[in-house]
Amino acid sequence: MTTQRWVNRPDGSNWGDFGADDQVGRMNLITPEARLRGAREIREGLSFSLSLPLDYPGGNVLFPLRKEPVFHYEERGSGHNFNFQMSEVAPSCCDVISDDAVTLYTQYSTQWDALAHVGQMFDADGDGKPEKVYYNGYRAGKDIIGPDDEGPRGAAALGIDKLAVAGVQGRGVLVDLEKRHGQDRVLIGYDGLVEAIDELDVSVENGDFLCLNTGFAQLVLSMDKEPDATVLASSCAVLDGRDEKLLDWITDSGIVAICADNFAVEAYPARETTADKFAALPLHNHCLFKLGIHLGELWYFAELTAWLREHNRSAFFLTAPPLRLPGSVGSPVNPIATV
Ligand code: UVW
What we know:
The protein is α+β, with helices and mostly antiparallel strands and 339 residues long. The chain is built from nine helices and 21 strands. The protein is globular.
């Protein structure tokens, strides 16, 4: 057991509560009992993929730093190792072989954010100066090493591979914000979320995955890989990360993750603030940095939402492991809901 990595922990954080070496945060609440509770939501045996095709949204207007997947093919024989006729290398063979490789921005489409995705300048070691630090006191440049640092690159701590082995399964609950607000751009704070939960009669329990349908991914899909950035920026519900009451609710609710079909779960850019120092992504700060709550983004809920609406249900069994890709700060995911 390591000694804790911090002298100061951020106000409102749970650092250390799951152990000095914890790297999965609230996912610790996915116990065998929590998984069984989720599995009890399987009544029909029907399943729904909650992923967009990973080449959506298309282009990079939604976020210029993330680009669509690009495929590569290795050369082989007279061409490439794709539709390759094995008889070229072994005349008696009748096989035809295809292999491929891909450059994939891990957070381009339906994704999980790892806990190493967002940290903060924070004085964790108590020397009076802030340093770059992530959940539970893990350090940039030491535990999470980038191209501008010395050492083997990647998130050796808090990477998405840690989530992959945590067994991402449990009870999902869907709050259908699109049913209440249509595809209007509305900022959802504590009042809006709790009203929706009550009105839709959703019961959110300790250990649940909170899923938010806003209609955004469906809108992205309808744009056929030519997304209109202006329309998207003014459509569909987003959480108000500056609402402290909402952040407190997230702390108290015991949820293990928030998975939304919109770009960043919260409004990005967030509401303006007059504070001297502030997080640009306040809900990411609260969830990823302070509490170890993973965020899922650009999930696709259209068919699941329609089925749940028709059957007057809101809960389902969710299985959503990311790729076990060591060092990565995010991952594509094909979440499966089973009802
Ligand atoms: C940003 O990093 C802006 O967003 P996300 O967490 O949605 O990937």
